[in-house]
Amino acid sequence: MRPRVEEVRIQGLGVIDEAVLELSPGFNVVTGETGAGKTMVVTGLGLLFGGRADPSRIRPGADKATVEGTLVIQPGGHVAQQVEDIGGEVEDGTLIISRVVSAEGRSRAWLGGRTVPVGTLTYLADDLVAVHGQMDQQRLLQATRQRAALDRYAGDELVKPLRAYTQAYKRHKKVTTLLEELTTRARERAQEADMLRFGLEEIEKVDPKAGEDVELRGEEERLSHADALRSAATTAHTALLGDPMEAAGGPHDVISLLGEAKSAVEAVRDFDAQLAGVADRLAEAGYLISDVATDLAAYAESIEADPARLAAVQERRSVLSGLIRKYGEDSAGVLAWAQQAAVRLSELEGDDERIDELTRECDELTDRLTELAAELTKVRQAAAERFGQAVTEELTALAMPHAKVVVQLGQSEEFGPDGRDEVELRMAAHPAAPPLPLNKGASGGELSRVMLAIEVVFAGADPVPTFVFDEVDAGVGGKAAVEIGRRLARLARTAQVMVVTHLPQVAAFADQHLVVEKASDGSVVRSGVVALDHEGRVRELSRMLAGLEDSELGRAHAEELLGLAAADR
């Protein structure tokens, strides 16, 4: 489904009080008396798609101008994805865009119900609408657009070489970037390699082990407090088993006291099962205390003050602490750093060989790109000649018989994403005039006709779904006006077209005819934009032809125009 503008609501803009435009998917034309506000319709569309906000365009007495558009788009398509990416909503393929401009000059925009910067509307407009008005910046005046449009016009003949070029360009850019990094940062990389070597040598000399720092910390604590530890173990052992050197004076150790308790309970255990359980637990406690006392005796025997070992441990800890401060949080972190540093050093030491390999590949890719770019130029040049001739023929039928459009291809010194070609559309107003850029070689009215001719030639190749033309028929009439209408209708076969015109010959070709009615006070009333039926079109065309809605001659001529347009479809 092709995106299109379904409805536009305008309030407080220029002479328009309030107007609603319901648009056809095909050719829409807007007519009306001078000063009724036809151009404000185009201005409103421009605001809707990010155009410059001019507070002087706000209707006198109004505090703001509001434009709201309802668009039909493909659910899940490119435009819908862009809207959803910024948090907007697309409901059932319908997108709402709003723009408000205050009398003080402030401007606000909404996209899919979400407030967005006005620039977002401009960005989105590139995929939705092309506005061709005498005061508008034309989309096709952009150099990148002209190149892209010519590529689409070239068609399948360009697809294969452009795909091959794009792949080679991406690889060339990647290789070039890496090569520049390796060569321009040679000093930094050499310094990095020296630092890594120093660190690895320092770590290798110390030869740390994972967890060694924790083990040494514990050993230092034991050696530093050896006397206190041995004394504590001996005292605890004595408390549990007693001192064999002490004269017997009664049971004072834990084992003896537990023995007395156990003997007392054992004597009567047979009289009560509960007390028998207590006797068993006292026996277990005696065994446990004996084991603990044995361990304490062994521990006390193992603890010795060793000043030499303590000094060695402290020295080793100091060396490890130095490594940890530089390379990791602990000895395991130091070993991990060494492993990563070895890998990185291997990469750095292989840079010279890598540079040679990349240089050879870069040279080969440059030769390949040169060949592919030349092939692209050849295809584009052929397409440019066909395109220039086709547009020039269209201009002849649009009352510009002496004008000639050419596509000038220049060559950039650098490779770009799409080749080396710089594409520019130029026009010579007459045979003796030099071809100039479009915005310099044509007047406002001529430029609209040039754009119409270009869009007609590009029809089907340009992906923009909606085209808006303001005063495309300025300065022409008669047969040329019929040809303009015929070409607008042709463009409407592949895109939605909206035209503001004062020529009945153009209006007759429309699928939807909207008229802006002017109230007696110069404003446009709420129902000021009306979609005309066949009888209404006859009356409006008669007014445009003869100045009188009910003129018999005018009505006959209007019917003739409508019949001509219908037959041409």
Automatic annotation (TrEMBL):
It comes from the Bacteria. One of its GO terms (cellular component) is bacterial nucleoid. InterPro entries: DNA_recomb/repair_RecN (IPR004604), P-loop_NTPase (IPR027417), RecF/RecN/SMC_N (IPR003395). Keywords: ATP-binding, Coiled coil, DNA damage, DNA repair, Nucleotide-binding. Pfam families: SMC_N. One of its GO terms (molecular function) is ATP binding. Residues 348-382 form a coiled coil. One of its GO terms (biological process) is DNA repair. Residues 6-521 form the RecF/RecN/SMC N-terminal domain. The keyword DNA damage applies. Belongs to the RecN family. NCBIfam families: recN. May be involved in recombinational repair of damaged DNA. This is DNA repair protein RecN. It comes from Nonomuraea diastatica. The gene is recN.
